[in-house]
Each structure stands twice: as C-alpha cells, then as structure tokens.
Amino acid sequence: MDGELPAEAFLRQVAPVGIGDTGDAQVDVDRDRRCGFPEVVFAQGKTAEAVERIFHKSLEHGTDVFATRVSDEQGGRLVAAFPAGHYNPIARTFRVPPREHGAPRRVGGQVTLVTAGTSDLPVAEEARETLLWTGAEVRMVQDVGVAGPHRLRAHLDRLAGADAIVVVAGMEGALPSVVGGYVDSPVVAVPTSVGYGASFGGLAALLGMLNSCASNVTVVNIDAGFKGGYVAGLIARNAALARSGVGREGHPPT
Amino acid sequence: MDGELPAEAFLRQVAPVGIGDTGDAQVDVDRDRRCGFPEVVFAQGKTAEAVERIFHKSLEHGTDVFATRVSDEQGGRLVAAFPAGHYNPIARTFRVPPREHGAPRRVGGQVTLVTAGTSDLPVAEEARETLLWTGAEVRMVQDVGVAGPHRLRAHLDRLAGADAIVVVAGMEGALPSVVGGYVDSPVVAVPTSVGYGASFGGLAALLGMLNSCASNVTVVNIDAGFKGGYVAGLIARNAALARSGVGREGHPPT
Amino acid sequence: MDGELPAEAFLRQVAPVGIGDTGDAQVDVDRDRRCGFPEVVFAQGKTAEAVERIFHKSLEHGTDVFATRVSDEQGGRLVAAFPAGHYNPIARTFRVPPREHGAPRRVGGQVTLVTAGTSDLPVAEEARETLLWTGAEVRMVQDVGVAGPHRLRAHLDRLAGADAIVVVAGMEGALPSVVGGYVDSPVVAVPTSVGYGASFGGLAALLGMLNSCASNVTVVNIDAGFKGGYVAGLIARNAALARSGVGREGHPPT
Amino acid sequence: MDGELPAEAFLRQVAPVGIGDTGDAQVDVDRDRRCGFPEVVFAQGKTAEAVERIFHKSLEHGTDVFATRVSDEQGGRLVAAFPAGHYNPIARTFRVPPREHGAPRRVGGQVTLVTAGTSDLPVAEEARETLLWTGAEVRMVQDVGVAGPHRLRAHLDRLAGADAIVVVAGMEGALPSVVGGYVDSPVVAVPTSVGYGASFGGLAALLGMLNSCASNVTVVNIDAGFKGGYVAGLIARNAALARSGVGREGHPPT
Amino acid sequence: MDGELPAEAFLRQVAPVGIGDTGDAQVDVDRDRRCGFPEVVFAQGKTAEAVERIFHKSLEHGTDVFATRVSDEQGGRLVAAFPAGHYNPIARTFRVPPREHGAPRRVGGQVTLVTAGTSDLPVAEEARETLLWTGAEVRMVQDVGVAGPHRLRAHLDRLAGADAIVVVAGMEGALPSVVGGYVDSPVVAVPTSVGYGASFGGLAALLGMLNSCASNVTVVNIDAGFKGGYVAGLIARNAALARSGVGREGHPPT
Amino acid sequence: MDGELPAEAFLRQVAPVGIGDTGDAQVDVDRDRRCGFPEVVFAQGKTAEAVERIFHKSLEHGTDVFATRVSDEQGGRLVAAFPAGHYNPIARTFRVPPREHGAPRRVGGQVTLVTAGTSDLPVAEEARETLLWTGAEVRMVQDVGVAGPHRLRAHLDRLAGADAIVVVAGMEGALPSVVGGYVDSPVVAVPTSVGYGASFGGLAALLGMLNSCASNVTVVNIDAGFKGGYVAGLIARNAALARSGVGREGHPPT
Amino acid sequence: MDGELPAEAFLRQVAPVGIGDTGDAQVDVDRDRRCGFPEVVFAQGKTAEAVERIFHKSLEHGTDVFATRVSDEQGGRLVAAFPAGHYNPIARTFRVPPREHGAPRRVGGQVTLVTAGTSDLPVAEEARETLLWTGAEVRMVQDVGVAGPHRLRAHLDRLAGADAIVVVAGMEGALPSVVGGYVDSPVVAVPTSVGYGASFGGLAALLGMLNSCASNVTVVNIDAGFKGGYVAGLIARNAALARSGVGREGHPPT
Amino acid sequence: MDGELPAEAFLRQVAPVGIGDTGDAQVDVDRDRRCGFPEVVFAQGKTAEAVERIFHKSLEHGTDVFATRVSDEQGGRLVAAFPAGHYNPIARTFRVPPREHGAPRRVGGQVTLVTAGTSDLPVAEEARETLLWTGAEVRMVQDVGVAGPHRLRAHLDRLAGADAIVVVAGMEGALPSVVGGYVDSPVVAVPTSVGYGASFGGLAALLGMLNSCASNVTVVNIDAGFKGGYVAGLIARNAALARSGVGREGHPPT
Q: Within a domain: residue H9?
C-alpha cells in the first residue's frame, strides 16, 4: 500500500499541536504529553527578557518551568520575576517547583549520581537539579575516581538496584567503565571539561567514554549534566510507571 | 567512620568471583549475575582458536554465547564447532540460542530500531542481533532519513510505547534528533561510518548526535550496533521486569 | 493563535504522499513534485539487487532514474538490466535518459564547470553527469589551477552569464576564490581529495573553500561532485523557468 | 591555437579597472559591475579610521557601503561620521541605505530565512541585514529546531516559492536537511557556534551540514551570516532579473 | 582454580582501607602506604574552603600536604591557614615541609631537570617543587633548546648518572630526543603550551615527544610539570631505596 | 665563565665516537656504552638487505642485535642469515640471544606486563620481547580490562614490588589509571589501536592515558610496545644495578 | 592614480602567453621563462596516456620533462615511449636529461640533502631527483637522526657553505631544528609519513617543523620531497646566477 | 674509517663557543658568526627583567638586539632602558639600530612583502621589522587578496627580481599560490589567524599554503611574521653577498 497514510496516523497529524508563540520563540507546550516532560529552556545566548517571556508562555499553558545555562544576570532577573523559583548558581539552573502551578508531582524512579572528583561539581549539580525536576530520587556517590580504587568499592550498595546511573567524570573519563562493570543498570556517562592540556576541553573524557569496554555505557555531550540527568530521569520514570502498574499513556507519538 | 568497609560490602568482596581462565583470557562468567547479561566476546583481533576456547569456557559455566565483529574466517570455524549457533555474516555476529544449553529464555521488553538508509544495514543488523540476544521484541522502521520527512511520519505508530528506541544513522546523523522529538522513550543513537569526505569515518554523525537538541538522545561509538542494541535491550529488560512485578534481583553489585 | 494549524497547512499534511516501498527501502516517489527533481540513489554500501529494486520502483511511478557512487560490479548489473541506461565508470554514475520513460525533457539553465587539474576528473565527471541529468547546458573550463594564472584568464568568456558555476579543486582549493572574483553568479565549490600529506583527504581544500574571501562561494562535501552539480543545476533550472515566464509551480511544499 | 588570447579577452584585460587606493587598502570599486554587488568591508581587525577611509573612498566612486563584524567602538565612530547609516549592533553590521547616494534600489528576489533557535539570533541578523542590502525581500521562520518537529511544518507556506532559503542553526545543524526535503529551492546552510562541549565552536554543525543527505544544501563558514545572506541574495537577484525579462548585463567578466 | 581468590589476596582486600571523608571529598589517606607518596590535591576548580578541608583531613591522618594548580586566591587563603607552608606562585604549588608534622624526611634519588627555554619556567617550577616534595635532589640545566646545540653539550656532566631526567620543552618539543641520546637514564618528557599558531596549545610538542626516536623517552600531559616531577621522583626514590639496601616495603598492593 | 667548556667536557667531545657506516646507515655502535643498551633497528620501511647489513655491522662491533617492526619477508631473510636468532612473528621482532656473540647476560630487574584484552596481544608481545632483550624478568597479567573489575584484583600480588609496570590497553585506555592506584612503581602506559570508530586508531586510548588521574603513569606512542618495554627495562636495569651495589658506570654522557 | 595600469604592466598582460592545450590539460609552456623552471607534471590520478600527451606537448615547445608520483604502470609506459628518459622507481620520478632536446644545462648551486633515517629514503630520493633536475650539485648526509647526536656533528663540513639545505625527517621531525642551529643557509624541512601511531601520517613531524625554534627553517607538505628539492634548487640557482655575475633575467613577471 | 672525527671537525668542536649566561638564560652570542644573524629574543612568557638582562648580555658581546612578541608592558620598560631602541607596538617588536653599538650595517638583498588584507597588518609588520633588521630592502604590495584578481596584477612589477617574496595571508591562504605562479623567486608563505569559524585560528590558511600547487612556496608557522621575514632576509642576504663577489665566510659550521 505505497504512499498512503493509515487512518490512525492521519488523525494524529491533523490534531492541533501546541505551539506557544512569544514573537521570537516557538514554545513547544505540547512536549509534556508527547515526550514525558515539558520543554526545557537553554538560556545561553538568550536575553533575560526572552527567557522570561518563554517562562510566562509556559506557565500560561500550565507547564512547569526549567532552564539551564542560566547566567548570573539572567538568574537575578528570574528570581525577581518568579519568587517561588529555585535558582542554583553552581548548577546554573532555574526551576519552579511543580506544586506552584498545580501540576501533580511526577512519578520518578531511583537514580544514582556518581562523580569522579570534586572539580566536577558544577556539572554534577546540573545533573542533580535535572533529576530532581524529573521527579527522580537521587543517591550520591562523590569523589570516587579510579586512581583510588577502594573508594568506589566502599559505596557499591548505593549503585545496586538503581533504575539508571549517571557518572560524571573529566580527565581520562574512566569511571563509567569501572561503574558499568558492577551493575545491571544503564550507565549514562557525562564527560566534563575538567582537566588541562591534552584533555582538550573534555575531548579525552568523551572519547574514553565512547570507547568504554563496558557494554552498558552510553554517552552525552561534554559538560552536559542536563542531558545526563534528563535521560536517566526518563529511564527511571518509565521504570517507575511500569512498577506502578499504570504504565505510560498508550498514546502513539504525534 | 573513615576508612572502614561496612560488613555488607565486606561480604560482597570476599565472595568467590567467577573467572574462567583459558590461558590467555579471563572469562567473566559472573557477569550475568552482576550485569544482567553474560559476557559478550569482541572477536576482532583474536585468533579463531582463542574465540573457540572462550566459547567452550562460557558453556562450561552454563552461560550462553554471543560474539561480535566475527570475521568470515572465524565465522566458518565457529559454525563448524557449534552447529546450533547462528552466524549472521552481515551483522558479523555469532550466537547460540539460549535454549540449547538450558538457559531460560530472557525476559525482554519492546525496542524499536530505526535506520536512516539502506547503507546502514550492517550496523543495524548488529544491533538487531544483539537485541534478539537480550530477549527484546524488535520493531523495525527502515530507510526514513530526514530529507524525506514524510517517511518517518508514516511510521510513528511503531515508535509509540517502546521501552527504548535505537536509531542508526550515518552522514549528518540528524535522525535521532527528529525521532527524539516524537517520543517519551530514551533514544540510543548509533552513528555509522556511512558517508564520504567530511563524514570523516562517522565523526560527523557522532558529533551531530552528541549535540542533539533533543534531550532524550544518548550516543554510543561509531558503528557500535552492538552497544546500541545492548543498552536498549538492558533498559527494555529492566522495564519488562518492572512490569512483570518481579523486578530485578535485589542483589547489590559486587 | 497559538497551536493551531492554518487550513492550508492542514490540507497539505493530509494529502497522500508518495512512498514506494521495496521492502528495505522507502523510495520517495513524490520528490520530483516537491523538490524539482526525482530522488537520486546513493549506491555505495547497497547490494546491486537493492539498487535494481529501487530503480524498478521508481520507473513504476514514472520517475526517471539516476544513481551515484556506482561500483563496477553494480554498474555491470545495471547495464544488463537497463540497456537504455548510461553508465559512466569514471563518474561512477548510472542514469536512464528521461526520454525512455516518457518524461518531458527538463528545462535547464546554463552552468559552467571549472576544474583545477586533470587529477580532479572523476569528481568533475560526477558533477557533469548530474548537471546533464538536471537538464542544464554545461560549459567546461579545465585544468586552470591558480599557479598558472593566465590559464583561467584565457577562458573568462566561458564564465560570463552562467546561472551558476561549479568549481572542482583539490590541494589548497584556491580556485573558487579566484573564479568568484570575476563573476556575478553563485559559485558552488567542490573540494576534492586530490593531494597528499597535509591535504588530509581533502580537508585542506574544504577549509580553504569555506574560508574563501570571495562572497559568492558556497561549499559542498569533499568529492561531492553530485551535490555540486545538483545545486548548480537547481539554481539554473529555477532561473531558466523564470526566464521562460512560466516560473515554478506555485505549490507550497508539503 | 595554443598560447594566444582571443581579441575579446584581450580587450577585457586592458580596460582600466577600478581600484581605489586608500594608502593601506585597495578598494575594489569595480566589483559592483563585475560581481553584481559592491565590495563589502570585513571590519574585524581593522582600525576604525581605516574603515572610515574605505567608506569615503567607496562613496567617492558612487558605490554604496556595507560593513560586517563591526565592533561597538567602530560602530560608534561610523554612526557619527555617516549619520544616515544604519548600525545594527546585534548583527554587527553597518550600511548606508542606497538611496542616500543616488544609487537605484536594487532588484531583489524572495528569500526565506529560517533559524533553529533564538540563540542563533546574531548570526541570523547578520544574514538578514545582508539580504536587505542585496535588495531581497525576506520572510522569517524562527525557532523551528528539529526536536519540535511540528513547529517547522506549521510554517511550510513561508518556504514555498522562495528563490533561495537560508537556514541558520547551531548544535547538531540538522535543520537544513529537514528544510531541504520540503522545497525546490537551493538551501544555503549557515552553521553557528551556538552549543557547547563537542560542538567545538560550530564544527559539529558544520560537518552535519556538509554531510546533509538533502541534495539541495550547500554550506558556508561557521557564523557566516553575511556569506549565507550574500549568496542567497545573489541567487534571488539573478532570478528576479530573469523574471523581469531584463536579465543580467551580458558582459563577460574581466 | 577458576574464580577463587588466593588467601593472601583475600586478606589484603578485607584490610580496612584509609578513606578520609570531608563531606564532598574522599581523601585517600592510605595512598602513602600503597603508592609511596601521599595523595596530592589538584586544586583547580575546587573552592578554597574545599582545599582547606582536604588539607586538615590529611594532616589529621599524619599525611603531609601538597597541592598543585593553586590559584592566587587559594594560595592566599592557604598561606593564612598553614603558616608553615610554602606557596610558590610561579609553580602554583603549595606544600608543607614534611618535618612540620613529624613525618620522616623521604629518601630521594638524583634527578636532573632540563628546560628548553625561559618561557617554560612555570611548568619547570611545578616539576621542581614536586621533585623536592618527593625528596629528590634536583640538578638544573636551563635554556638549552636544540637550536643552540652547543648549549646542552656544555652541561652534559649534569645529566650523567641521574636516576631520572625530566625535560620540559614547548614549541617543537625536540629536546627530549636529543637529551635521550646522551644518557642511560629514563627521560620523562613534559610538553608545554609555550608557542603559538600551529603549536595548538602544546599539541605539537606532545606529538613530537610521543614520536621521539630516542627509546628512553616517555611522555606526560601538556604542562604537566607535576606529573613529570612525580614519576621522576618515584623512579629516583625506588633507586635510592635500592642503593640503601633497604628496598621498598615488600607489601603487595591492596 | 661564559662560553668555555670545562676540561672534562672537552675530553668527552674529542673522544672518538663509534659510528658504523654501512653506506646508507650510520650504526650507532657506541650506544651501549652511552645509553645502557645497544641500538635497536626499526625495520619498517627498510629493505631486508639494509637490515641485514646493519646487523652485520653491529655484530662486527660486538654489539648484539634487536629489530622491531620486522615484516614476514624481512623475518624470513633474517632467520636464514642468522640461524641463532629468534624471530617472533606476532611481536614482529628479531633478536639474537646475547650469548651467541659472547656478550655477558645483562643485569635486569623485575617488570610486570599487564594487558587489557587478548586483542592487544601483538603489542604486548613486542613489549615482552623487548623486556627479555633488556634482561628483565617479566611477570604477566593478561586480559584484566576495567569492566571486569575483580579480574585485576585477583592478580594484585603480581604487581607488588615490580621495578616498573607496563600496561598495554586499547579502547578507552583506562587500565593504567586503575593499576596506578594500587602500586608504588612507575607505570608505563602503552595505548593500542585496538578498537573501532571513535577510537581513531588508538587516539582515544592515548588521550585517556595522558589524562590519567593516577600520578605515576607516563605514556608512549600508540602501539609502541617496544618503547614501553624499553623504558620499563631501563628503569628495572638501573634498579637492579643499584641493588647489586655496583651501580651504573659513573661515566658522564658524551 | 586609482584604477590605472602602468604601461609596462599593460604590455606584459597583452603578450601572448604560452599554453599548450592537450584537450584535457593546459600545459603551461611559458613557465620556464616566468618561474625559472619548466612545469612539472604531478602524475598521480592521471592516466598514463594523459601524462604521455603532456610530455609530447612540452617537448614540442622545447621544454624538458619532469614528472613526480609516477606509478609503476605509468613508469613502464613512459620508459617505453621516451627511451632516453630516467625513471627512478624509489623516487617515483621520471625525467628526460635536458641535453636530449637541446636545452642548455641549467646553472645550479650547491645544496646539501640531510636525512634522519634510512626509512625516509623514498622522499629523499624524490628530493634528490628534483635537485638534479634543477641543476643543483647535491651533497648527501644520511641517517643522522637526533637521538645519535654525534652522527650529525661528524658531517658538519658537508653543511657548510650550502646555498640551501633540505632536511628530510619523519617521526618527531626534530632534525631541521638541530641542523638549523649550525648554519647560515635557509633550511627547507620536509616532514615524512615515516612513523606510526601518534605520528598520524606525518602530522607530528609537520607540526614539529612548523614550530621549530630555529629561525631559518621553513616547511613544505608531508612527503613533499619534490617541493623541498624545488625550492632549495631555486634558491641555489638564484645564488649561482648571482655569483656568476649574470643574475636572473631582469624581466618582470607576467 | 668508522667512528673517527676528521681533524677539521675536531678543531671546530673544541673551539670555545659563545654562551652568555644570565642566570636563567643561555644567550647564544656566537650565533651571528654561525648563522648569519645574532640571536633574536622571543619575549612572550618572559618577565620584562629577564628580557632586559638578555639584552644587556648581548650588547656586552657586541651583538645587536632584536626581540619579538614584546608586550606593551615589556615594550615600555625596554624603551626606558634602551632609548635608542625602536619599539613597534603593532609588530610587537623591539630593535636597536645596528649603528648604535658599532656593528657594520648588514648587506641585505631585495625582498617583496605582499599582504592579502589590511587585517593581516600586525603579522606583516612583524615581518617587515624583521626584514629591516636583516638589512633587506623591502617593497610592499598591500591588500591584494585573490578575490579582487586585478589588484595583484596591477603591482606585478614590484614582484619582479626579488631575492625572496614574503606573502602574508589569512582566511583561505590562497595568495601565495597565485603569487608563486608569476615569479622565479622563492615564496615564503606566512598564514595568519585572520578569519573566523572554520579558519580554526589560522589552520585553514596553513593547510592551504602547505598544499599549494605552486612549487616555489614554503611555509612557516601561523602568525610567524618573524620567521617569514627572517628566512626571506637570509636568502636575500646570501644572494646579495653572492652578487657582491664576497660570498659568505667559508667557515664550516661549528
């Protein structure tokens, strides 16, 4: 049956989709229904005014608000405009707790967040804020880089049974491989730009993680704490929904 | 309480761990218990004899057998040695169906495997073989590269409700971003070396996927059909276990 | 009016789109109407059988046939299967003259194809075959690399008045900049992998062309004779349609 | 007839060419006649005085004035020196409307300018200013990145019938491929340095665009809003001249 | 005897290991016993408070203190908090002489530190401070880059008999090869980011050293004065222990 | 005392140095005295005849013979010409046992050679052959990659007390960091080109090792089993000489 | 006097220039007069027939013949067609001694050609053949890599007084820096692809030479023995002409 | 006669060589005799005091003084300390005219310095200052980038007869190829970091120049105006000495 759309697909395509137009931005207010979480604002390179307009548009549509790469200047303005919001200057995130605008608290699973060193903190914080926004419960294992091998082993119980594990590491980026060898959870590896010289801004850690000999390791962009947290949070949410017996809405994507 | 191991961790460390020694290889026969799936053999650069020895060692320990990057020469030898095995020369994989050596069929979830073009077939086949080995049920959406935008939209129903989605694409590697915008599943992006010139052996696709503006996209190595299938299969297995009400074994990792 | 589709867009989306399904490929038989030219087959990495199936599907839908990166093996098979077709082993292209299957000859404009050296011939031939397929009239200026500066100047009249100019060059890739300084046509620069050492497979030429100080130079992939010819042919076709007073169909894209 | 120049070419070479010498710069005051538009000044790395001298020399020769990469300091000085000029600090451009110095308004075609996100604004503005300078009519489609796939589809009518389309995108740079699949216009892709980590200052977007599977996509340098606008404006101008029945001057290039 | 740990290894694993927990950092206070020297703090990207907490924790455990990549701000704070400490602002190191907290002076060997140019001083100073901390005796040969070939030859006697040689060089990084040809000591090459243009931040020197035709040259990271000094100091310490007839503790690693 | 050479240095410079001239090669027959081991022949890119001539020249001067990167063709010829020699086709090395030509057996120390996987065997064999040539006693720990973390721990006793440790690993190259955390020996890391995709021929492993967070890790070139073995053998020889109470010859270098 | 050509320049531009047209190639038969040497044919990627046609065209115009990158197949054909020619299969060059076709022997200067190792021979041979073709007298210094530092010093007299020095080296490419420090001649450095691993096909040597701390070192492409020889031969020819009191023809360039 | 030094070489080696020791720097005061010009100071990364000390040491030995990469702070201090010196803040050079300290004015040849654009001025100035220091007579051809092709042709007479030509260009770096095609002089190409995006800090220009199809082009480092000027000045000096009938001192190098 070449070239024809099945009726079901037809209906999906003609359904009105949610776009919130702020003049210069097209806010994807339908994303929560389609993708499980609302749209997140990448604040870098936007004016504070533009970010604020997007926030208002999201709130109008009953969607909660989360932004990353928020500069100090943007953060100050957003705190003033949305007093109930939470600005984390180390993570450079801004979020408004879901309760404020009536959204039900999300169902979240269990995620363990592992860091190689204390210099990786800003990226780890971005991941942690994102995980909290997704509704996940977060267990921390900090400063367990591979050159002190007994440090990770002392915390193996915090890895057990996690729906997903996020590992944040710079320099040679070896920690995800080691973590991956201990667990039956997917490991989302976040390379950081911590290092110097032939780290090449995190390239060494990125390549190390991509070439990980542990089969359960996938990778996101350098310093992408947000994306690491998002994917782990999504995996955990889906597992939690499965455990709850509810499952995800059966809706096919639009 | 600096420097002390909790008793629980102590016990885990002293438990005899499973290592199958073949002389030149240390087969990790404990991995199934620890990581959810048995060890997989990376056959590239090994002699056919060495691969065969590892297979025998695995079977001795009651573990099933899966190998990737199997050359034609290795494949011929393995087919002769293990007649019940399945050799896929396009995927370059060899596996022995679990039933042969008594292992229970694995609980697997639902994974959709999407390919951008027919030239990506070998990598997609490696992913598909891996997914089948993990026990997942696989739905295929083939040849839906982004420059023919209605092709993907005609198959959106096959994306809906998947536990995980694997997207295999070369050239600019844009397909995972587009797929990611339609679904609430994690998307595991597998860049391929299909292309020429400034594709630089898949680097363009890899970078494109790492920089995906879709938040639910993680990435594995270039041409890593195996790893893409493995991680998606692991996510799907964990979701299926959650749905079954059994959950994963509560064991903490060793 | 957030989130609503205008009626016109609605109608476009529900129109049946043309997909020719060959089992493993989704042939985009609607592309001629949408994009001005039919789909072109990238034969590299496909089996000869798969290419042949795609050709039959295209011909069924009344679309003519053009393939690039055709290997000798594929070429032999296609010549046998489609005797009216034209196989150019230097260009590695295969096309069936439009007349054979009743398509009207395309309206084409005027394109000048310039090459830096005789070693660039295979890429230039791919561009020339593509241009002929688009219906363009092609003027050639060959072997006029920048180190023999009077060679290009002796052929300036062939550059004048072209709707588009394709410049194929390897090594330092300087020729498009020099050509660009003489004309009021867009220049499509095609870097080639001709060279050695720090040419890095055409990277030097690519970077040179991207950094061209001539404002009218755009760039395609290394060795992408096809794409260079395609874009130039498309610009020329649109100009020819404009000159003819007919213009392109007013249809908005689907 | 080796080694001889045809008479026509001879005459072209001996015609006095227009060079305006400012001491340290050779202003190409003949470029309008030869290339369709006057020379544009790349202000970066020049002193404000040098830019001003070039402007005066251009105006002396009856050529209008356009400069890019104008710093705040240079902008302030130029605004003071040329009060009728238009300084766009986001685009970092300065132009004097053609009318001021008697030049006829240029014949321009129709160009659609598409952006992936609001962070791409500075590059898009440089493209827009350049397009206006070329005389083109510009339609905008903003913030339609590929991860919100319905956003572009809601604006397909603005793509239809354009003489050329400029697509400005950072991160994975996938938008030109998607746009290219909908239209029969040439697409000029402008990668931006928007992103972080493995974006490598726009390299990811650049490579993605160069490897685009859409055949009608050509590429310019990273953040080269000017060049994207220039080439699109040139294609549109030539098409508009063709539609007007006048055509370009028949002059062969010099 | 697959899968069993020998008793000796068992005992090692169950021994309480030294971890000093500061809240966000896990100080490896067992490292001196295990690795020959205490843990060194990489101060970059840490808050001054965090560094200070780690120092206190180390001193509590009777370990001496050494930190690298200490910023001016961190340095000021540490000098105030630990008046007996030595802050070297050129090397960006901070160390507390071992005597202060009762540790026996370390047994150190003989190391020669060679620099190519005076611009390499900061990296060389980091290496020298590290060597002094390891207890090594350091001989200096400064500013003997290869283009003044008699300069090195005038100081060959300072190379003779060293337990290890550290060579610090930027630009083309050729000096280690030349030094290596004169001696029977291991040469630890430290590439620096001194240079410009195609030095690419020290990449040229790094690659040069990795490709050294002298067989006794190994390499550390760009600007890694610390690591160069550490490894040389460790080799020298082991040699000095061997000469002393005492040798290293026979303990197997944990 | 600017510009003067001390008498001692003067004498060293005027001493006749040992150069064995074969016509096209200058054999450095003095290297044993100067550098601790005789010159080693890099056979790649040389004709078999040239290698044979160099061997004869070395033997004439009483120096023993060792060559690396010996091709099958070269190997066959050398075996025929030097029947007492030992050709290892996996390591691609050829050496003549020192006893044959009367040289005293070298004093060697204790080196542990660790490999991540069985695919790294050729590089490990080159290292092992080199170590044997240096006189070192070699302990092997094979196939202990980081994703099976208990495999290395089962062999920690073979790491203890080594004069130097060579770690051979491809893919992400994480093993040296983990080994380094257990020992007080210098670790010479040898990255291999084992891997695929973003391994980029061993670049990932190389960068990972250069950025190792373990302070005692230095690095040699990709696949440089020879250099890894050489440096480790040199460190071990010097330690063994120190233990023997003899020490190295006091001679300053020439 | 903006925009006018001086009369002298006018005359030069209108002079008939020498182009020999072979159909697909434009032979620059005027180059000898303009550039000091005739055009050289880059045979790579050309058919043997095309090379032969170019040779005939050159000989017709009284120009002698030199080709590089001549494959074995091309070489065989050329030897048959031009029996007086000299084919060097190691250098992959073909030249016809000038005497054959009546050209006067060129005035050449004195060039020293230095190689780092015997594996660099093919590149060095290409340089030597080129130098002989330019008329230069060539002194050889072979196999004097920097790790055997006394080898170069033993041949310093062959460096003295050269009009130019060509240094051919792979691996770390350090030799030009060392040579440069001894002489008052320009040093043309030719990096070779000899090496492995992080040599990256000669990139390491190239970067090393570009960053040379010796001020008199310039660089050509990797493996560009031809260009190294050409430039050195040109410098030497000009010096020889100066010494002869004749000087170069006073002609300004065309 | 293996291993012996000829008497002549012996004498050269034992001659006292000129090293001026400033404590942390070894000033090569013998370089003028050996290399034709005195040592030049690379001021970057040195303290102003260190530069001043080196200057005093050079003047003590009767050598004149030239420094590059002089910062504003260093420049201010040097101007105060050496009032007769000439500080060029655009070139960032400092030199003391030779006459001041009695050195005879150098014999210099004729060099033409060509620039592509006015943004390349700082690098061109560094080259010009260096050329003047070498004693060369400098002719300038400015702002003749390849996209305005008649601009260079209007100044061909300034290229004729030069002993060497320095071409300074950024962006695509095509100008040296075009210049090279007109002349029988060696062309020293200096890539600059002028550009943006895929210029990658001058890499594009560098690669373009290395791959130049003009045989007489050699290359120096990015932004290396000094080295470009130095080598051209050296070639010109040697030619001028040849023309003068004096020639260079016959001394062999030391």
A: no
Going by pLDDT thresholds of 50, 70 and 90, the confidence category of residue D1 is very low
Of F154, F160, F242, the CB nearest to E243: F242
ipTM: 0.90
Provide the domain count of chain D.
2
**H or E stretch including G14?**
helix G7-14
- Asked whether the predicted pLDDT for residue D103 surpasses 80, the reply is no
F47 Cβ contact partners less than 8 Å away, ≥ 6 residues apart: none
Whole-model pTM: value is: 0.92
B211 and B133 fall within a common domain: yes
Cβ contacts below 8 Å, chain A against chain C, sum to: 38
Residue H134, both tokens: 């070498």
Are A124 and A233 within one domain? yes
Same domain for F220 and F152, yes or no, is yes
CA-based nearest distance H149→chain D, Å: 9
Claim to verify: residue A122 and residue A147 sit in the same structural domain: yes
Do D96 and D121 fall within a single domain? no
Which residues make beta-bridge pairs with C26?
A: C21
Q: B16 and E3 in contact by Cβ < 8 A?
A: yes
Residue C88 shares a structural domain with residue C33: yes
Q: Which residue of G has its CA nearest to H156?
A: G253
Closest chain G residue by Cα to residue F26: G143
Residues E79 and E134 in one domain: no
Return the structure tokens found at D73: 């300091």
Q: Could you say which of D83, D101, D119 is where a domain stops?
A: D101
Residue C177 has its nearest CB partner, among H147, H203, H212, at H147
- Boundaries of domain holding C196: 110-243
DSSP-assigned beta bridge partners for residue D41: D67
Residues constituting chain A: 254
> Is the CB of residue E121 less than 8 Å from the CB of residue H24?
yes
The C-side interface with B (CB below 8 A) comprises 17, 19, 24-26, 28, 30-31, 39, 42, 44-46, 50, 69, 191, 193, 201-203, 206, 221-224, 254
Q: CA of G30 to nearest chain D CA: how many angstroms apart? A: 9
Per DSSP, chain B holds a count of helices (H) and strands (E) of 9, 11
pLDDT band at H73 (very low <50, low <70, confident <90, very high): very high
For residues D114 and D85, membership in a common domain is answered with: no
Q: Helices then strands (H, E): number in chain H?
A: 9, 11
Domain assignment present for residue F252? The answer is no
CATH number assigned to the domain comprising residue E179? 3.40.50.1970
Element (H, E) at D40: none
Q: G248: pLDDT confidence band, cut at 50, 70 and 90?
A: confident
Q: β-pairing, C93-95 with C86-88?
A: antiparallel
Q: Is the pLDDT of residue C12 over 70?
A: no
Cα dihedral sign, F238-F239-F241-F247? positive
Instruction: Confirm whether B1 is domain-assigned.
Output: no
The CA-CA-CA angle for residues C25, C28, C30, to 5°, reads: 160
At B87-124, the pLDDT tens digits run 999 999 999 876 555 555 678 899 999 999 989 999 99
Give every CB contact of residue D80 below 8 A, 6+ residues apart in sequence. none
Which chain A residue lies closest to B160 (C-alpha atoms)? Answer: A252
DSSP structure class, residue B154: T
Residues from chain E that touch F219, judged by Cβ atoms under 8 A, are 210, 218-220
Which among D51, D78, D101 is the end of a domain? D101
User: Is residue B3, in this structure, part of any structural domain at all?
Assistant: no
CA atoms within 13 A on the CB side of F152: 31
